[in-house]
Amino acid sequence: xxxxxxxxxxxxxxxxxxxxxxxxxxxxxxxxxxxxxxxxxxxxxxxxxxxxxxxxxxxxxxxxxxxxxxxxxxxxxxxxxxxxxxxxxxxxxxxxxxxxxxxxxxxxxxxxxxxxxxxxxxxxxxxxxxxxxxxxxxxxxxxxxxxxxxxxxxxxxxxxxxxxxxxxxxxxxxxxxxxxxxxxxxxxxxxxxxxxxxxxxxxxxxxxxxxxxxxxxxxxxxxxxxxxxxxxxxxxxxxxxxxxxxxxxxxxxxxxxxxxxxxxxxxxxxxxxxxxxxxxxxxxxxxxxxxxxxxxxxxxxxxxxxxxxxxxxxxxxxxxxxxxxxxxxxxxxxxxxxxxxxxx
Length: 344
Ligand SMILES: NC(=O)c1ccc[n+]([C@@H]2O[C@H](COP(=O)([O-])OP(=O)(O)OC[C@H]3O[C@@H](n4cnc5c(N)ncnc54)[C@H](OP(=O)(O)O)[C@@H]3O)[C@@H](O)[C@H]2O)c1
Prior knowledge:
Blueprint: E1 5-6, H1 10-23, E2 35-39, E3 44-50, H2 59-67, E4 75-80, H3 92-98, E5 103-108, H4 118-124, E6 128-130, H5 135-140, H6 144-152, E7 156-164, H7 182-194, E8 197-201, H8 202-208, E9 227-231, E10 249-252, H9 257-263, E11 269-272, H10 276-284, E12 290-296, E13 321-329, E14 332-339
Parallel strand pairs: 4-5, 5-6, 7-11, 7-12, 8-9, 8-11, 9-10
Antiparallel strand pairs: 1-3, 2-3, 2-4, 12-14, 13-14
Helix pairs in contact: 3-4
This protein binds NADP nicotinamide-adenine-dinucleotide phosphate.
């Protein structure tokens, strides 16, 4: 590193580690997207790293390699507790101990029984350990989907929809293309490029003929394409864009959201982009972990709402969610919600 950057607090160094972890989100399966930063005893950043694709190096090892001898006596900041087991790579705690860092600061405890125990190993070797720094930010951010997967064994489902400000997801004639702005669409394409699968119902395929691919601003295909999943009993015409060669497609002939989720247990990050029928079925089944709503400043009125029946007969039984992010994309609002009182 030519120009070492200085960090003046634990939070600042962890924020840098978080930034690096975001850069590899979607590329590390089955490993978590982790970021690491090594700071020398003078507070200068001397190495950064983020998890490589499966079989590659872990974040700490890359950051230590870049720091070289400057890591000795310094502090390692990692978004996840360093692992303590031999997988495809040796335990990261070994590398930290060998590099003679004086302290390891991490955000989130490793929930994985096999890889966990890193903190104890480090302490036993005389390395100071501090945990929980920006833990909520990491758990709700870069590691959200991976933590859900480790804890439940199921993929994390984000229901994404675009609606007018009056909650309509299509005009009265069924047309829904371009409700959201170009800025929202590029945001969505970036989100798709890190997802493992996109799920829609046959209704969306038949109404809109979407390609369901991740594209760059110039229209070219992103390097990484999510699996496309179509749910429902009806036949899809062979010329449908969702069946083109741009990515793989799975058709699941069911109406049971849990069957869909089970068919995707080898995935971590699933985007539900279906219409109101499928969205309602997933919400009724409690199978949505996050909502991502692109809300456009337009009114459409009419009968096609963002979601059909969600199984709420009266206001006291409303499904309660809370906002965990409110952003802008061009003229639109991007609302992120998680179940009320929980991480989903
Ligand atoms: N603005 C947005 O974000 C957005 C996104 C997507 C779609 N849309 C709009 O939504 C409209 C299409 O709505 P849609 O509701 O037909 O789309 P959909 O929810 O994607 O597909 C509905 C189909 O899903 C299948 N399905 C799967 N599980 C089901 C269950 N538990 N119960 C009932 N059906 C189930 C059924 O297919 P079978 O009948 O084949 O069994 C059903 O007809 C279009 O106008 C489209 O433009 C808007």
